[in-house]
Amino acid sequence: MSGTLALGLTAVIVAVTDEVPRVLVVRRLTHDLATPEQRATDVKADMRGFDSLPFGPFAADRDRTLEQGLRRWVQEQTGLPLRYVEQLYTFGDRFRDPRELEGGARVVSVGYMALTQEAPLSGSGEAEWHDWYDFFPWEDWRDGRPALLTEVIAPALARWAGSAPDAATRAKRLERVRTTFPADDELWDYERVLERYELLYSAGLVEEARRDRAVRARLGQGDPTWTDEPATAASLGTPMAHDNRRILAVALGRLRGKLKYRPVVFDLLPDEFTLFRLQRTVEALSGMRLHKQNFRRLVLAGGLVEPTGALEANTGGRPAELHRFRRDVLLERAAAGVGLPTIRVTE
Questions:
Q1: What is the strand order of the sheet 305-312 is part of?
Q2: Radius of gyration (Cα) for the chain, nearest Å?
Q3: % of the chain residues with pLDDT over 70
Q4: What span, in angstroms and rounded, lies between the C-alpha atoms of 57 and 129?
Q5: Range of weakest confidence among 48-57, 131-140, 146-155, 273-282
Q6: Residues 6+ apart with CB under 8 A from 111
Q7: How does pLDDT run across 254-266, given as a tens digit for each residue?
Q8: What is d(CA 256, CA 251) in angstroms, rounded to the nearest whole number?
Q9: How far is CA 104 from CA 3, 29, 99, 241, 334, in A?
Q10: Chain-wide mean pLDDT for the chain?
């Protein structure tokens, strides 16, 4: 298969349940692009390799569109019918599937993001819902700046920058570190999820980088600029198959960015919800705590929601008024998001 190309379809499926942002992963794949570990049926589930995003090859003779093929694979692997779907990016770097190094096809995958509500799963993929902050623990600031940033990431990146072969390279590394992982909390850009993951990868500080380097080294294509800190890699989130964590980083950054100008959060909520639940869902996605009064003022003044006249009694306190998304806002203005950056809690 050397020199050939294979086209795949990858799904990032997001839900928020009980204030936990979740992503759907699969442990078993049965198609031709699956690795032997992913196809295996005679080994224990925890020995089948890394979690994968739902993924399958595009069948040009069967699927009229790429999206149709994606929906078919997701339904087969997870039992979940998709509603809102948007295309993310096309991932086609060399060696993203390491079998290419040994003469296999280059696997190009078109990534999609789908928003849904958590539902029971079935299908062939042994699918599970996982907290997405298990994969990116440094992105969750709801309880303040993560200790992982100060205690692990900052020192490791400083060592990487300091190990540069010359002054010019060292300066470039330091600039990249300071802009991507700023020491000042006020300069943290919650949308730059992919840039942060790729810096950690470039520095050899995540498990995927160590894994990829080992594969390349066996074929004489090692990269001496990477560090080797297994303890650090083990603390920096759950690794995924191939470049799936990079795909997930693209989706998280995209979703956080869209919060500002599109009402995507309502695809993750039931038809009727309290303002408290709406706020907690936004916080789960953004990884930030928001000022309650400012958030409600912005949402109500922006005409994003309207009261239903009903109350939810099961709140643990006073009954809370139920609201619904006011769809007319889509006709009234082009940008209909929650204005997240202006209401972050800083005290």
A1: 273-274, 320-325, 305-312
A2: 22
A3: 89
A4: 22
A5: 48-57
A6: 10, 11, 12, 87, 88, 89, 90, 91, 247, 250, 251
A7: 999 999 889 999 9
A8: 9
A9: 8, 18, 5, 17, 46
A10: 89
Domain parsing of the chain, residue ranges: 5-132, 137-235, 264-343
pLDDT-derived band at 277 (thresholds 50, 70, 90) equals very high
Average pLDDT over residues 52-57: 96
Amino acid at 161: A
Q: Work out the angle between the directed axes of helices 193-202 and 244-258 (0-180°, nearest 10).
A: 150
Pairing of strands 84-91, 106-115: antiparallel
Enter the tokens of residue 252. 């998280």
For 52-61, 178-187, 264-273, 332-341, which range has the lowest pLDDT when averaged over its residues? 332-341
Residue showing tokens 């010019």: 168
* Structure-token pair, residue 243: 């470049």
Supply the pLDDT for residue 341.
Answer: 44
Match domain 5-132 to its CATH number in 1.10.1740.10, 3.90.25.10, 3.90.79.10, 3.30.420.240: 3.90.79.10
Specify the CATH class of 264-343 in words.
mainly alpha
Cα torsion 216, 233, 149, 144 to 10°: value is 120
Q: What is the pLDDT of residue 216?
A: 67
Spell out the SS3 assignment of the chain.
CCCCEEEEEEEEEEEEECCEEEEEEECCCCCCCCCHHHHCCCCCHHHCCCEECCEEECCCCCCCCHHHHHHHHHHHHHCCCCCEEEEEEEECCCCCCHHHHHCCCEEEEEEEEEECCCCCCCCCCCCEEEEHHHCCHHHCCECECCHHHHHHHHHHHHHHHHCCCCHHHHHHHHHHHHHHCCCCHHHCCCCCHHHHHHHHHHCCCCHHHHHHHHHHHHCCCCCCCCCCCHHHHHHCCCCECCCHHHHHHHHHHHHHHHCCCCCHHHHHCCCCEEHHHHHHHHHHHHCCCECHHHHHHHHHHCCCEEEEEEEECCCCCCCEEEEEECCCHHHHCCCCCCCHHHHECCC
